[in-house]
Amino acid sequence: MSEIRPVPFRGGGFRPQVRRWVGLIVFVLLIAIAEWGTRTGWISNLTLPRPSDVLATFGELWQSGLLFKHLSPSLSRLAVGAVLGVSVGVSVGVLIGLFSYVRAGLVPVVAALFPIPKIALLPLFVIWFGIDEGSKYALIAFGTFTPTVVATYGAVDNVDRTLIRMGQSFGLTWWSIVRKIVLPGAMPGILSGLRISLAIAIILLVAAEMLGAEYGIGAYILEAGSLYDLERLFAGVVILSALGVIVSSAITMIEKRLLRWRG
């Protein structure tokens, strides 16, 4: 009698496996190579500062209190601008996806606004909203609005129409179909678009703070660059990178909570 062997489970498809330690190892290797290269002279200190010196700069920022003095206004501007742009963008995108007249009227407008370099509009926003916080909020909100709209109505369009017809055949109301079928089915695409929108928001935050801001990560980077202080400049860049990682991790947590039905 032949030996019975268990059949491995193959239902996972292409579902990605969590390998957190791989990313950590890659980061550690890159930092170690940079440290070794700058200490041995293989990499010029005029091109790349030593990671240990950048770490020491972080310590100075922490002890002096400048870290939170620059980080707090940046987080405030990012939160207000991104919430405005994303909330309006998702709402408009859902309306475009659901209503033909809204689609016919707004898609050409969104298509005309989308390719405009948002940074180029900063002087216009300064004229409209002043050089204070209003222009910064407006730039970040507008920069996140258009990609969020495009991602949202694209996600609504990609919902399986068979599921919608099935809901209609069971007598579900229009609102029940939207709430139970369309929005859950579009949520993966909306959250994927949100990653791009928030990355754009961080870029626009730096651009906005380089014009007329006393405090903020963008103002800090601009000041360090004008003094050619590479340690401070790279410290600011690392802060932005860490901010992007935190935002991406937050969206991942939201995905796990909202998309548990995907298995």
From TrEMBL:
Residue spans crossing the bilayer: 21-38, 78-102, 109-131, 137-156, 196-221, 233-254
Top-level lineage group: Bacteria
Membrane topology: Multi-pass membrane protein
Pfam families: BPD_transp_1 (PF00528)
PROSITE patterns reported in the protein's UniProt record: ABC_TM1 (PS50928)
Sorted UniProt keywords: Cell membrane, Membrane, Transmembrane, Transmembrane helix, Transport
GO aspect biological process, one term: alkanesulfonate transmembrane transport
Domain ABC transmembrane type-1: 71-255
GO CC terms, sorted: plasma membrane
Subcellular localization: Cell membrane
Main location per the UniProt record: membrane
Transport among keywords: yes
Function according to Swiss-Prot or TrEMBL: Probably part of an ABC transporter complex. Probably responsible for the translocation of the substrate across the membrane.
UniProt record similarity statement: Belongs to the binding-protein-dependent transport system permease family.
Protein name: ABC transporter permease
Natural source organism: Aquicoccus porphyridii
